[in-house]
Design a protein that fits this description.
Number of strands: 20
Oligomer: single chain
Largest sheet: 7 strands, mixed
Structural class: alpha/beta
Shape: globular
Number of helices: 16
Radius of gyration: 22 Å
Distance between the termini: 47 Å
Length: about 525
Amino acid sequence: MSAFPPANVVKSVASTSSDRHETTDSLEDWDVIVIGSGIGGLVTASQLAAKGAQVLVLERYLIPGGSAGYFERQGYRFDVGASMMFGFGTEGTTNLLTRALDAVHVKVETIPDPVSLHYHLPGNLDLKVHRDYEKYLQELIAYFPHEAVGIRRFYDECWKVFNCLNAIELLSLEEPRYLMRVFFQNPLACLGLAKYLPQNTGDVARRYLSDPTLLKFIDLECYFWSVVPADRTPMINAGMVFSDRHYGGIHYPKGGVGQIAQKLVEGLEKAGSQIRYKARVTNIVMERGKAVGVKLATGEVLRAKRVVSNATRWDTFEKLLPAESMPRSEQKWQQRYQKSPSFFSLHLGVRSEVLPTGTDCHHILLEDWQKMEATRGTILVSIPTVLDPSLAPAGHHIVHAFTPDWIENWQGLSSKDYEAKKEEVAAELVDRLEAIFPGLAAGLDYQEAGTPRTHRRFLGRDDGTYGPIPRRKLMGLLGMPFNRTAIPGLYCVGDSTFPGQGLNAVAFSGFACAHRIAVDLGL
């Protein structure tokens, strides 16, 4: 059985929005059409709607959110992807989810997480990343006392990056008037960011740290959200993640991660714009070299002044547009970046007694440093019910375990062999998780697995990829494209645009994209 298929409650939500607009959209021209309702696409759409634009979001599935969606089974509400949520803080400018929701006058109730991550690593390295920054440093230094000074200096560098980001309004770096304004308002912050743009985290770490195990730990600190080690992780991104988990903190949305997308849609519609579900875009319509609309699988053509693709760049430039006419800039980008792995996801319902009181929400399990980047080497775990028990039946918890995997490992199998392999891999993961959750197998109440093929099918992502990763070491974020493309009228948003992967990063991309389009439309 595959994860993420529609639940009954989802069908009822989707049909009302989709059917409501089915007979009228083809007669209308829109200011902006957004392909896909991932968080990047929804932030773009809602920001533009708040500025008065008429926006239409087209979603191929039955609910919004993409990787930030949900599905329901037997009383469990499972998050499709990760549940570690940045961007819900109340201070500064990096609280992008709070700001996105506020713009369309909606709110999501959240639950603070006192420990953002609990590491279970080789050599009995059992470490918690506490919200309290000093508490985290003390725990890390206790394992590496000889690196005490270097540890503080490295994370101080991360704070310098974050403080620069947190001092300026985060909008489109493609808009000259914005750049001039923020530079004159805060020149030191802008110069600080310019300094770190070409740097990678690994290079910064090695200035201060030398212990091989500690450097491997920094690699894993990056890998769990960037899917590459520190040498290929931009310092700008690391500065945001490593600092904001202590500054703004990690907050889980009450009712599940899917609440974020649902509330953004609610705000979008209140602002006078629309979303259509079961609306699969097959082509971006071009006229005289310009993007002017989209064509749906039904044959319907919808026109707009601007088109935004929240699909991956591979889907956008190889499927929605003729691959043979790919702009040279996109060809160069694909030479620098490749698709990251997808994930094997295991959604479990377990009896509460399996998890002792005080169990943390997020965990990483790695038994061998050499296997960190290997297929199914690192296991990431979310247990959102320790924060929000309403997501599971009384007396039960959700355990969502996911691990990097490649679609090639799941191709060419018969239906029988495919299901058998899923059962085999699921059993292996449960067995490994027994090391940190003894009795897990005996306490299982529900189990459902998803493979890279599942992610490709339900999330519409080429090969089910998590996003782009550098093919080789690059100069920080300088290789990441912004929102405008070489095709007039066409913009991209999401994890294959600046600043990259992660929920808060794609929200940043959405703010930037909406700002650039608003200027272009004169809003």
